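Example (one chain per record):
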Amino acid sequence: MIVACGTIHTPLLLRRQGLGGESGELGRNLAIHPATAVRAQFDEEIELWRGVPQSYYVDEFADEGLIFEGAAGPPDYMSMTLPGLGARHRELMEGIGRISQFGVMVSDTSRGRVDEAFGRAHVRYDLNAHDTATFKRGLELPSTMFVGNGSGPVAEGSKW
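Predicted structure:
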């Protein structure tokens, strides 16, 4: 039998069908590999959407649980991922041609669970101290690269 309802809904379907509950592990050990992005706005035009969309994958820090991806995206995609509302969002979008970004992905050791409450999925997932520290480092590395201040790992021989 193959069940393919995704990470969140598969345990709920199995539980509703009376399957997989014997071990007590159904819906446990959820790993989500949390991700975010670091962005910087430069003085010069970058226009990530010009030419063939490309991305750059950095696995230099994979042994620390970090993967980076420099991703290009058209303005409409970027508009959905930028923070703010109203005037603040408009201000960011007016400068979209000068924004660059790196995705930060953490290979998590934290584990969560999926349960059902009132007929809907209820997900509980909290970052542990190790993953929080990994996320912090994951935000610092591309930030240092973007700032280019000559300090930190980028200046110490990183492949970036």
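Caption: Residues 129-147 form the longest helix (19 residues).
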